[in-house]
Design goal:
alpha/beta
Amino acid sequence: MTEATPAGALDIPGVLLAGGLARRMGGGDKPMRTIAGRTILERVIARLKPQCSGLVLNANGDPARFASFGLPVVADTVTDFPGPLAGILAALDWMAERRPEVKWVLSAAADCPFLPRDLVARLEAARGAENAELAVAASGGQTHPVIGLWSVRLRGELRHALVEEDIRKIDRWTARYPLATVAWPTAPVDPFFNANTVEDIAEADRLAALDGG
């Protein structure tokens, strides 16, 4: 997280959410599955690194399995795998402690290999234009609440929602705040396609050619 911000990137770091259990793939780390010769996580990093002022990976268990990617690994601070909100909270806490100047953090699922190259810029522009507290991505008439911008100053409220109110669904929590939604086209590839099953991996191999590899 100490490298220089890439030219053209906003001062918004990103967290890649890899804390899921991948039950529909028989367990393991979905982002480590391979699509057209590259792991999904490699593809996600390649898409987001030019857009963000640093990346961290949210994952539980032994962080050494991700050592080759060179990213800080931040585990959930709320137990029992409560879902992506816990990963987002862990990233907000990590940023508040280590990069107190950061006001907004991008979150993205680490199993989305075709993320837009203008993801951060468009989310931040919409958030600013609408004076919103949060921003989320959408495509094909569906929102993708795991992929969005989060205000670091809301981390205390998020922790309370998780720990005291047992809120797990992202959209239940985001409904409390002014929210900007930004839609992307789904052709030739839905940029928020995610690999949940073995069949999805096969489909992603096909889509990779349409997305430029």
